[in-house]
Model the fold of this input.
Amino acid sequence: MAKELIRLTDCRMAFDNEVVLNNINLYINDKEFLTLLGPSGCGKTTMLRIIGGFLKPVSGDVFFDGVRINDVPPHKRAVNTIFQKYALFTHLNVFDNIAFGLRLQRNNGNKLDKFEIHNRVMEMLEVVSLKGFEKRDVTLLSGGQQQRVAIARALVNKPKVLLLDEPLGALDMRLRKDMQNELKSIQQATGITFIYVTHDQEEALAMSDTVVVMEGGVIQQIGTPEDIYNEPKNAFVADFIGESNIVDGIMHSDGVVEIFGRKFKCLDKGFDPMEPVDVVIRPEDVDIVPPKSGKLKGTVTGITFRGVLYDIIVDFHGFKWLIQTTDLCPVGTKIGIKIDPDGIHIMKKGAFSGMYGDYSSYSAEYDEISDAEHEQDQEDEEENEFVSS
Done:
């Protein structure tokens, strides 16, 4: 059975009377890779800073290994942090960057000897795949190599927990994917608890044991990547994790839901007869069939080639769906759709109902604009946090 290492109990945080964390309750197990996932401003970085000791909650408690640590300063916690900006010492080589913290450590009042420092640095270089780089100038390293140095510097002190705040944000897409695998391998090899902050859903799903989805200072859902993706609790989670068509439905009975006046079989149960619900259908779970064979019929209004497949926008009764398929359907094509029961997920109506799931304005350009805005927001947020601390 997993051992609990960190617990946040009824934690609340506010800046200038604006609540950014609202009664957070969360526990994190030893040796777990847990990701705090959500859009900019949802409170995930604030939670990370509370765990690290850089912020103290307005109310509530933080426990580490069963001991309350609200008043314990950062340097006395068994925690290290890696930020998006690695803050390496440019006047020191790779070895000296990694060894910096060890040279400040004391064991029973005595500094660590050079032999132990050397062995621990060389061991960490092996872990992060930088053996042979110990004398290299850090300014001559690639972005991925610099990140590995930052990770080694944080891990060489043997913390129980490593906090990672958007550490891959400055890397290009290919390198980010490579480093996702590296981070997961390092976490498994060291057995250190990783608490990772990101707005990137793919990153969270690829690396995590547990994902905590946040919005508006509130935890919306906690679960494994599979649970979060396949069984979202509300429309926000369904929309934020991957792509989703979210439509209004009526639950006629267990296993039968009505969409746009057509009844579909599903696997969900436990709803009241004729209860209004939100229906989630992932783009990859929709099969295109001839119009006469489909329960729903629509018109293709947009198509984007993605390499392996096409993103197709289809108009059904004025509601735009996204369908991912290997079949080419030109704009203007009339199609039918088929959805298997396990491709339909039913959710209770809630605060986020009606806010997501229509792809009327879907465009790759919108995604790029959104990402650019997020990066600027993140930079502004980090700068403000630095000034305030």
